[in-house]
Write a structure and sequence with these properties.
The chain is of the alpha+beta class. Helix content is 19%, strand content 23%. It has two helices and three strands. Strands 1-3-2 form a three-stranded antiparallel beta sheet, covered by helices on one side.
Length: 96
Amino acid sequence: AAAERILQTYNATFMPQTEQPFRLNWACSGLGERRPDASPEHSIFVGDLAPDVNDYLLQETFRSCYTSVKGAKVVMDSNTGRSKGYGFVRFGDENE
């Protein structure tokens, strides 16, 4: 309910101090995609990554401090093959 309210409130409104609107959508796993471990996961966004940061480095950087890290993904530009400078880290423990 809270996520739906945020999506409806902010979608297409302008980002602070810019002329660019927010473009918000729901995110979900692909159809038929199943994780081997179906326990709950919690993700965080990580921005301003250096160009040489890959999935493994991002994962291990967080895993060195947080034991429940399940994985990480650096978002890549499909045209250039280069990092877009941000990614996501998945945790098994919401308190971490």
